[in-house]
Automatic annotation (TrEMBL):
The keyword Lyase applies. Its EC number is 4.2.1.3, 4.2.1.79. Residues 20-259 form the MmgE/PrpD N-terminal domain. Residues 284-468 form the MmgE/PrpD C-terminal domain. Belongs to the PrpD family. It is an enzyme of class 4 (lyase). It catalyses: (2S,3S)-2-methylcitrate = 2-methyl-cis-aconitate + H2O; citrate = D-threo-isocitrate. SUPFAM superfamilies: 2-methylcitrate dehydratase PrpD. Gene3D superfamilies: 2-methylcitrate dehydratase PrpD (1.10.4100.10). The lineage of its organism: Bacteria, Bacillati, Actinomycetota, Actinomycetes, Mycobacteriales. One of its GO terms (biological process) is tricarboxylic acid cycle. GO terms for molecular function: 2-methylcitrate dehydratase activity; aconitate hydratase activity. Pathway: Organic acid metabolism; propanoate degradation; Carbohydrate metabolism; tricarboxylic acid cycle; isocitrate from oxaloacetate: step 1/2. This is Aconitate hydratase.
Length: 500
């Protein structure tokens, strides 16, 4: 890997395009290096993973809204929209499928200086691949780039520190991945990356206080913008430049300011793209920092005879967990039984309480209003708090995968004074966890979430296509769509008419 120092430059400085971060990303995107077999295999795993969570979310209201919008934009040759027949304009297919993937907060993650769900790159790349009739091997190459770029930006550049939403790293990564997939030249990719970044910077209010459905729409919007940015760049249109380093650019005014500097690692010439292997999926439908606490709660409940005897629970954890989904956020909504699903998903106190009581976690039942309003749950929930532990924060940011951790230590004090404590560094499904996910687990997750939504024969057909991805040609990529039973789609909510 080559580490690039990225900082603000004055307009009067000598700063050639060859030194711009967007240019360095374009150079990585055009490098014809082979995709390692393990990277290609993980790309397939994540395509299956996205289909799993899309099946589980297909009739939820935000997903239905996005699908309804997409169906108003048929396209030729077009791309597919999850669950239905027909072909649609690729940017709208990317939009609808992106919302389906993101709605339940149930797909892959990578955490470092910033946060990310790199599987959000898959919907825009698949949509463009279907529109352009590229091969499955080309799609794999594009996704290897998209994962690499997003994860490398996440390693070195914090957005949340300045309350900028993490999808600002997704726009450039999707644009770069599309560039690789289509075999575009450096200049076109450079311009597309700049446009995509410029148009996908937004505040983190979408993940603060009362969290709305926009949390699911935000990455889909970034993917749609990336598709449109590449289209404009292909037609010869340019971007603000230098987009990160400019005197009025992203670093100067949205991030660390004129004196800020970032160290961004990117593969060198001829170096394989392996970043996807450093990311991890979710066994539970909840914020990633809740994954290990859910597993920890399931383990601790066996040591507590009567949960009513709990006096208090303190979760010692990282700064991120404490201030984003813990009591360090100072969000009263995180203790509100009537809060939205998206808000409860960002309350580790609620999640730990339910997991401790139920010994399991379900993407629907665990968030149901009747579940959140149970008096015994509310009582336990309000006994839980978080504190930042510097060691957990250090491990969260560690570059050593053997000690990098996203978990917590739980200290439970009973009414009689007895203290029960335990800790878990990584979720059971993490590559270093008790039950790491492999192809078998990804397929099992798909079977579980697609049950009653996708007919068994259709499930089998999709898995057959996905696992042969490297061999697919042209229209065969249309097979990556999953048809949902009409009886299921009939249960989707009725969406009011909009503009389209």
């Amino acid at each position: 890997m080559i580490t690039h120092t990225v900082r603000t430059r004055r307009s009067a400085d000598e700063f050639p395009q060859s030194d711009h971060l967007a240019q360095k990303i374009a150079e990585v995107a055009v490098d014809p290096v082979d995709v390692p077999p393990e990277t290609a295999a993980m790309v397939i795993n994540r395509i299956i993973d996205n289909a799993s969570v899309s099946a589980a979310s297909v009739i939820r209201r935000p997903v239905t809204t996005a699908r309804t919008q997409a169906l108003a934009h048929p396209g030729t040759p077009g791309a597919t929209v999850f669950g239905v027949d027909g072909r649609y304009s690729p940017e709208w297919a990317a939009w609808a499928n992106g919302v389906a993937v993101r709605e339940l907060d149930f797909h892959d993650t990578f955490l470092a200086a910033e946060y990310s769900h790199p599987g959000d790159n898959i919907p825009p790349l698949v949509a463009v691949a279907q529109q352009k009739g590229v091969s499955g091997a080309d799609l794999i190459r594009g996704l290897a780039t998209a994962y690499e770029i997003q994860i490398d930006l996440v390693r070195g550049m914090s957005l949340h520190k300045h309350k900028i939403d993490h999808v600002a790293h997704l726009g450039p990564s999707a644009a770069a991945g599309i560039g690789t997939m289509l075999g575009l030249d450096e200049e076109t990719i450079y311009q597309a990356v700049g446009q995509a970044l410029h148009l996908t910077t937004a505040t983190r209010q979408s993940r603060k206080g009362l969290i709305s459905s926009w949390k699911a729409f935000a990455p889909a919007h970034a993917g749609k913008i990336a598709v449109e940015a590449v289209d404009r760049a292909l037609r010869g249109e340019g971007a603000p430049a230098p987009i990160w380093e400019g005197e009025d650019g992203v670093i100067a005014w949205l991030l660390d300011g004129p004196d800020g500097a970032y160290e961004i690692p990117l593969p060198g010439p001829g170096e394989a793209k392996r970043a996807i292997l450093d990311s991890y999926t979710k066994e539970h439908s909840a914020e990633y920092q809740s994954q290990a606490p859910i597993d920890l709660a399931r383990r601790l409940r066996e040591r507590i005879t009567d949960l009513d005897e709990i006096e208090s629970i303190v979760l010692h954890t990282s700064n991120h967990t404490h201030v984003v989904i813990g009591t360090g956020s100072n969000d009263p909504q995180k203790f509100d039984p009537s809060a939205s699903r998206e808000t409860l998903d960002h309350s580790v106190m609620y999640i730990f309480a339910v997991a401790l009581q139920d010994g399991t976690w379900h993407h629907e039942a665990s968030y149901a209003p009747e579940r959140a309003n149970r008096p015994d749950t509310i009582a336990l929930w309000r006994k839980i708090s978080t504190v930042e532990d510097p060691e957990w924060t250090r491990r969260y940011h560690s570059e050593d995968p053997r000690e990098k951790a996203f978990g917590a230590k739980a200290v439970i004090t009973l009414r009689n004074g007895e203290v029960i404590s335990d800790e878990l560094a990584v979720a059971d499904a993490h590559p270093l966890g008790a039950r790491p996910f492999g192809r078998e687990q990804y397929e099992a997750k798909f079977a579980t979430l697609a049950e009653g939504v996708v007919e068994p024969a259709e499930q089998e057909r999709f898995l057959g296509v996905a696992t042969r991805l490297a061999e697919l040609r042209g229209d065969e990529l249309l097979g990556l769509n999953v048809r949902v039973a009409d009886t299921v789609l009939d249960k989707a909510p009725t969406i009011p008419d909009g503009i389209f």
